[in-house]
Amino acid sequence: MKTLLINPAVRPDSPKLLPNVGLGYIASAIHRAGIDLEILDIDAHRFSEEEVERLLRIKKYDAVGIGTLASQYKWTKAIAHVIKSVRPNAPIIVGNTLGTSVPNVLLTKTDVDIAVLGEGDVTIVDLLTTINNGDPLSSVRGICYKEDGKVRKTPDRPVIDNIDEIPFPNWDLFEFELYLEKSKQHVPVTDTIPIPFEERVAVPVTTARGCPFQCTFCYHAFQAKKYRHRTPENICAEIELWHKKYGANFINLWDELSFYYDKATERFADIMIEKNLGMYWVGSCRSDLLGADDLEIARKLKKAGCIGLGYALENANKDILITMNKKCDADDFIVQSKILHEVGIDCYTSLVFGYPQETEATIIETFDVLRKARIYPSVGYLEPMPGTPMYQHAIDHGFIKEEEDYLLIMGDRQDVRLNMTKMTTEQMEAVVRDQLILLNKELETGLAEDQLVKTRAYRVAKTKDGFLPEQIKDSFLQGFGVAAEVATSRDPEVSC
Fold first, then answer.
1. Residue 479 is assigned to a structural domain of this protein
2. Is 212 helix (H, G, I), strand (E, B) or coil?
3. pLDDT beyond 80 at 387
4. Residue 454: per-residue pLDDT
5. Backbone torsions φ then ψ of 462, nearest 5 degrees
6. Angle between helices 360-373 and 330-343 (to 10 degrees)
7. Is the dihedral of CA 363, 365, 366, 368 positive or negative?
8. What is the pTM of this model?
9. Which residues lie below 8 Å from residue 441, measured CB to CB, with a gap of 6+?
10. In what order do the strands lie in the sheet with 202-205?
């Protein structure tokens, strides 16, 4: 049995090329199980839609796996249609946040056959073995599948408790030299790395699975599963391996939440200092990781190679933070920012505007906190993610009338797709833009006006209901090159 894994291009217009860490773990699990595997890496080669279709027609495979995001539903629907037309008997399997969050829509509205729910390392091997043996899918835990015109769900699969036991991704399964060549594009622009730009080699590393918090706008593949963190020793061992094998000198800690406990954070710093690899790195944390008495930990992080930490303010208004279930406040954010500034660690943050309580005053309130913290943000608007409380709120209040219509227009979080405030979209965007202009001048960032909001400037045609579902339905099969930003992006500026 031969399995084809497809790695989509989530950001086809971006000069950055980032390894798909989740797919890396899945590919490694399949390979270790001795299953014949080939990877169609659309992202690495930026294949056109015509080239993708040609390759799908000439390659030999018995099953197809796609690991992708909820924001790529439209692309997935289109490519599944092509796959099924070429290989009608090859089951199409979709995982990650798309497969986990909307399995019923995926299995009833597209040609996808099976959705893997949550953690897929064990499930995918069990599933492929079951398909190869001709055994019933009902025996595989942690999936949804189509049978007799109905969607059936099997019992949940237990998570892997000790994620230190999971082998490191086998990047040799990919054309990893392509990623290494472009990896320097993902190193933040900063003067704090004493390595020439052309000599920078970056590799991503995950430190944890899941998140102990339940923010109402956020969705990830381990939703409602316990937060599991690798030991600092295990993380540092992987970092050392990529340093020796690939010459990596920069590590992007690629998680919903890299650092949660102050003691584990300090232990990680101690080990990195002891190894003295000459590595630099960025990671994500909460805005309350470091308090007023934690200056010494911040100094250790700096000595250990930390050049920046991302921690999301999201919003400064207390009522909105309560609705977000954020469980930290603006005072924490200001204190931690001052500590990190003092030791010379860059600070990255993201904002989410557009909760129902949002007003001009709450937007200004949020920017006032950024002025005190002296941080320029990555700005985004609330895009309800399937499987989150805000998605259900949008359905319950009539903002989302048909789930598939909404899924087909999901994309860049910097663009307003649903406006649940009492402001018009134009009013909200104007206030945000005015505040960004002021903050840009005060912090002397030097950004041009067309760079104030990080976006591909993609705008969806809108009706009074927010989008044009019929137009989208008619056009989505014309091509599957329209990729979109994930709402919970793993850019360094966006974190928990």
1. no
2. coil
3. yes
4. 65
5. -125, 150
6. 30
7. positive
8. 0.89
9. none
10. 202-205, 250-253, 280-284, 306-310, 346-348
